[in-house]
Amino acid sequence: MLENLSTEKRNNDTMKMDEMSVLEILKTMNNEDNSVPGVIEKELASIEEAVVKVIYSFKKGGRLIYIGAGTSGRLGILDAVECVPTFGVSPEQVVGIIAGGAKAIKTAIEGVEDQPQVGMEDLKAISLTPNDTVVGIAASGRTPYVIGALQYAKQIGAETVAISCNKRSEISDYASTAIEIETGAEVLTGSTRLKAGTAQKLVLNMISTAAMIGVGKVYGNLMVDVQATNAKLIERSKRIIMDATQVDYDTAEHFYGQADGHVKTAIVMSLLDCTKEQAIEKLTLAGGFVRKAL
């Protein structure tokens, strides 16, 4: 079975990689990575379909749930965790699940990925609903844990997306949207943490970012729902207000304080010369979209 997967084939350009100089190895790896965006481009229509599903889930009060094993699971967790400070969402809105649980983030627990029932149970444990979108991630496209999760998600009526790095992947048969990024043979045979992992991360970036834009978390290209949880992010928040309203630093700081640290509110207050209460009302009526509030 594995011999039929492009991600498991040997790369003809690296047959003598152990004889290469360090620079030659790095150039070879860089050249291979350069092929990834072109492969992703071929799947943009499917990625768009996935984003639309996630936006729809968010608007219904549902969640984006990534689930995978090994590297795929860790990448899902990484994207989910970063959505909290970047877009100001709760940790429950974008969730990352890895086969083997939290321990598997740091320690490889490979055997669990062969158990479809565990994938189902992990989704039951977070009380999956029909309002959610489940994104199953597996470079090989055949991980039983992910298949079990997608089967359960489909069974209860949740939206389902499969991301793999091989064509005609098995997990694609269990999802209503299939994203198949055929990255091909790795420089190190079978090490899908390399090109395949890079491709998966880029696609997850697209899904979460585009979906957040779709629910009003961005104004222009500014992340106006950023959570200012540290000094760096507080300063970034003020600079976002400066960029959005073309005011100076002191004015931005003033509106930031008046808005109790809520960037969107500060922007609307500044641009419409209104009170905090009026700005909040306008944003509420606009569904959280700054541009509509203006």
Task: Tell me briefly what this model is.
The chain is α/β, with parallel strands linked by helices and 294 residues long. The chain has helices at 22-33, 36-41, 44-59, 70-87, 103-106, 116-125, 144-156, 195-214, 231-245, 249-258, 263-272, 276-285, 290-293, and strands spanning 64-68, 94-98, 133-137, 159-164, 177-180. The protein has two domains: 6-215, Rossmann fold (3-Layer(aba) Sandwich), CATH 3.40.50; 218-292, Orthogonal Bundle (Helicase, Ruva Protein, domain 3), CATH 1.10.8.
| Name of the level-1 CATH class of the largest domain | Alpha Beta
Shape: globular
What is the assigned CATH homologous superfamily of the largest domain?
Glucose-6-phosphate isomerase like protein, domain 1
Read across the widest sheet, the strand sequence of neighbours is 2-1-3-4-5
Give unreliable regions as ranges: none
| Strand percentage | 5-15%
* Residues in helices, as a percent range: 40-55%
Largest sheet: 5 strands, parallel
User: Which structural class do the helices and strands define?
Assistant: alpha/beta
Number of helices: 13
Average pLDDT value?
95
CATH architecture term of the largest domain: 3-Layer(aba) Sandwich
Number of strands: 5
Give me the CATH fold name of the largest domain: Rossmann fold
For the record, the count of structural domains works out to 2
Give the termini separation: 57 Å
The whole-angstrom Rg is 22 Å
User: How would you spell out the order of helices and strands?
Assistant: HHHEHEHHEHEEHHHHHH
